[in-house]
Amino acid sequence: MAQIVTIGEILVEIMATRIGQSFTEPGLFMGPYPSGAPAIFIDQAGRMGAGAAIAACVGDDEFATLNIERLRRSGVDTRFVRRVAGAATGSAFVTYRADGSRDFVFNIAHSAAGLLDATDLAPDLFAGCRFFHVMGSSLINPGLAQAARCGVELARAAGARISFDPNIRKELLKLPEVEATIRAILGQTDILLPSDADLEYLCPGQDADTAARSLLAAGRECLLLKRGALGSVYYDREQRIGTPAFLSEEVDPTGAGDCFGGTFVASLALGIPLPRALELANAAGALAVRKKGPMEGNATLAELEAFLATDPPRRQEVP
Ligand code: ATP
Ligand code: MG
């Protein structure tokens, strides 16, 4: 029985080896690495020992094997991952710009990842579920959007809370229905895990505190804003807690937010008190960026505890 359930894309990621490298000319790329935002999230939740499961579709290829074996090693229940004969596992190519931003070429919607639909949500997926997590980056076609909406209903019926990371990607907003589904899931969200860019998309022109307050006014439990190298800010109706980031050499930022979210939700599932959960999530994000590969920097609870026990240096500014 999994306390934490997610759905969505399992991918391989293949990344540029040089900052400034472009997709418009040949260059060296590294990979395949196991990836996909919900996969990174659930891998981390599994490593935390919280009991985790994912429903997803993969191809009948070795990219699928790479991912499934990896998730199993992390303690994730992969019985709800469907291998689709004749389909290829999804992929994402990424390049890094000098300003820290990234460009992607996704093959998701027309890969096996795009074939997940509500019929993949077997009733026993939600037996014992306490948190159902949705990634905005998964809502790329009507089948996946329907699966997310259906998952929210089944999870609610099982008494679970809904966590949502909007994870807006400009490449995905061009797809039909994405915006409408993001708004629909937002309306059902208890625990919202946006980045600054997500807040700007959800509440254009508002500063972060104002946007967070207005998103909380909708009655949700809490909002945890991810601010990259600055750290994170937690909001609920009573309090605002800024947690400065740990100093970390950023080798590869991809997946830090998903790892951070997986740590936070798993900490709640494990009954870890809020101040410690925030420290653990920040520690997980700081460790995640130190390694190349979207989930290569994921860590167990014991590894995070050991990191925090060294009293690692952190930024002076509180976000
Ligand atoms: P993603 O690109 O995966 O969607 P995100 O925007 O959702 O990322 P980030 O804010 O980049 O998430 O990272 C999540 C958390 O990880 C941050 O709130 C912070 O605690 C930690 N973190 C990220 N980058 C760094 C860094 N360079 N140094 C230290 N900690 C970091
Ligand atoms: Mg993110």
From TrEMBL:
Keywords on this record? ATP-binding, Kinase, Nucleotide-binding, Transferase
Q: What is any Pfam family matched here?
A: PfkB
Keyword check for Phosphoprotein? no
Q: Which residues span the membrane?
A: none
Question: What molecular functions are annotated in GO for this chain?
Answer: kinase activity
Organism domain of life: Bacteria
InterPro entries the record matches:
PfkB_Carbo_kinase (IPR050306), PfkB_dom (IPR011611), Ribokinase-like (IPR029056)
Give residue ranges for domain Carbohydrate kinase PfkB: 33-298
Q: Which family does it belong to?
A: Belongs to the carbohydrate kinase PfkB family.
Name this polypeptide is given: Sugar kinase
Q: Which organism is it from?
A: Benzoatithermus flavus
- Lineage per the UniProt record: Bacteria, Pseudomonadati, Pseudomonadota, Alphaproteobacteria, Geminicoccales
